[in-house]
Amino acid sequence: MAEIVDRNKEILNAIFEQALAADTTAQNCWQVTEGGPWVWQHDGVRISNGGSWSALNWQGWGDFKSPALRKFVIEATVSGKAEAAGLSFGPYKDFLARLDTSDSPRHLQLEIDAEVGCWAFRVDGQLMNRSWWDARVHSVEDLLNGTLTLKAKNAETVLFQNLTLHPFLESCRLSVIMTCFRFVQRLRLALRNWCHQDLPSSAFEVLIVNPESPDGTHEHLAAVARGFPHIRVREVAVGADLNTNKGAMINRAFEASRGEWIWLTDADCLFAPGCAATVLQQVQGQEQHLFYGQRRRLSAAQTDAVLAGRADGLHDFAQLASEANLRVETGPWGFTQIVHRRVFEQIRYSEGVNHFARTDDVFVDDCRRHQISPKQLEGVFCLHIEHPFAWYGTKYFL
Asked: Do residues 19 and 156 both lie within one domain?
């Protein structure tokens, strides 16, 4: 089965590359259905002065599909001048990025998982909301039964590049949720460890809630989305008015999540590369628990070494964890809270507290009242990157 998926992946990627190399047979696999002209170049395919709509569809999409190809992400880069441009599977089945507000290339990722019947569209790593462009998409089958198309609206000139497909070998089992406001230095380190977990990349996703953080969080997440296209890293954008309401931010991320298990953690916590796999092994079949781990606090000197790059939070993890001066805390608090999806559907984080303190305590109490008992995971711990007190928000970039 995996061989079929890999072969299908190579067909799309190879056809596009061959068309860019002036292979007329490969170019003839693409048909202009709206607007024009479309011009093949060595670095992409361009539409200029395309009118209201321009569309170039791949005639091989129907033959390309197979029962094995049910979980994958299609990526492309679009740049130029237009109202919007992106991917489509038919009229009002469009996944477009606006090009009238930015001169920078936009990185598109359309994720499809027919096994669980869901899809997600990201632009520069940020999850996009539904719009009138995709109003006729009611199920994954509407996409699979359509025709893969490159599309632009009111294009002056748009260049489509880097069209690729990456298969997923399994559906998402774990959703890791964290918030980040003025914490991008620490998020950068934490997210790197998440992107190197010893799990199939399709088995987990990482959702970062960004309440319009002014420290470059959005730009960093866009870079991670481009640099780790096979990892499901998702930015959940919310308003700046929620920047200290941890409960509201977590709840918004849950609504966008897909995993069977929900892992709540913080943007200042480093986990070992094998931690996610260990957790999934231990929680299996135990849906009536709130699982938690241990926190080991790095010293100020260790934190400076990691932030400065003298120590590596990924490759030096074991050495950092073994330091004798670490302060250890164990409890079901916000640095690690893991519950089954059905638990979180029933018990949400409190949105009545507008700061980061105490909301995790309230969640623990609510779980206990619903007979969801806390249970410690064996051997699961994080390294906490030291920072100034920030329960009530911070004016510093941490």
From this structure: yes
Work out the angle between the directed axes of helices 184-194 and 300-308 (0-180°, nearest 10): 80
pTM: 0.80
Residue 70 near residue 115, CB atoms below 8 Å: yes
Q: What is the CATH number of the domain that holds 19?
A: 2.60.120
What's 288's domain CATH number?
Answer: 3.90.550.10
Same domain, 86 and 214: no
Q: For residue 205, what are the domain limits?
A: 174-384
Residue 67 confidence (pLDDT): 61
pLDDT tens-digit map of 29-65: 999 999 878 999 999 999 998 889 999 999 888 765 5
388-395: long-range contacts at Cβ-Cβ below 8 A with a sequence spacing of 24 or more?
A: 390/183, 390/356, 391/355, 391/356, 391/357, 392/244, 392/355, 392/356, 392/357, 393/181, 393/182, 393/243, 393/244, 393/355, 393/356, 394/181, 394/182, 395/182
